[in-house]
Amino acid sequence: MQDKSHPLYRINDFFEAYANAVINHDSKYLAKCHALPCSFIADDSTLVYTTAAKLEGLINQSKRFYNVHGITEATPDIRSKRPITDRIVQVNLTWTYSNAKGRAIYDCDYQYILKLDEHNQWKIEAAISVNEKDKIELLVKKKG
């Protein structure tokens, strides 16, 4: 029998709460979901945040984008969880962003490195964007 209290089983809950905070623009909660420092990595950039205030600034930039595109829902679809150590896991996830009618606006893929903190809570150490920039560029092009 599997131990459902094991931290690996709390990753889904972590990302559900994270998605809720994304839609509610709760930048303080989202910042607390990240370890400091944390890294955001894409093909063309790497950003490292060492303070919650700067991380909140990045998070707050998404508000306008969501409003312009009518995004009211964020749904995480966890594709895989791969333990690296007892306290570090790699998560492959697809985000789907939808409008109030449930119509998908766009989706994108991420790889996350999560680490358990001293309180046994998951924190994002690194978020690796696989294709978000391309998906957003396509969305903007379609919208014209």
Shape: globular
Q: Beta-sheet strand percentage?
A: 35-45%
Alpha-beta content class: alpha+beta
- Uncertain parts: none
Arithmetic mean of pLDDT: 93
Radius of gyration: 15 Å
The number of helical runs is 5
Pattern of helices and strands: HHEEHHEEEEH
Q: Going across the biggest sheet, name each strand in turn.
A: 2-1-6-5-4-3
User: Largest beta sheet, briefly?
Assistant: 6 strands, mixed
Distance between the termini: 53 Å
Q: Describe it for me?
A:
The chain has helices spanning 11-23, 27-32, 52-60, 62-69, 132-143, and strands at residues 34-42, 45-49, 73-83, 88-98, 104-116, 122-129. It contains five helices and six strands; from the N terminus they run ααββααββββα. A six-stranded mixed β-sheet has the order 2-1-6-5-4-3. The protein is globular. With 144 residues, it is of the alpha+beta class.
Keywords:
single chain, 144 residues, alpha+beta, 5 helices, 6 strands, globular
Write the layout of secondary structure elements.
Elements: H1 11-23, H2 27-32, E1 34-42, E2 45-49, H3 52-60, H4 62-69, E3 73-83, E4 88-98, E5 104-116, E6 122-129, H5 132-143
Parallel strand pairs: 1-6
Antiparallel strand pairs: 1-2, 3-4, 4-5, 5-6
How is this structure best summarized?
By secondary structure, this protein is an alpha+beta fold. The chain is built from 5 helices and 6 strands; from the N terminus they run ααββααββββα.
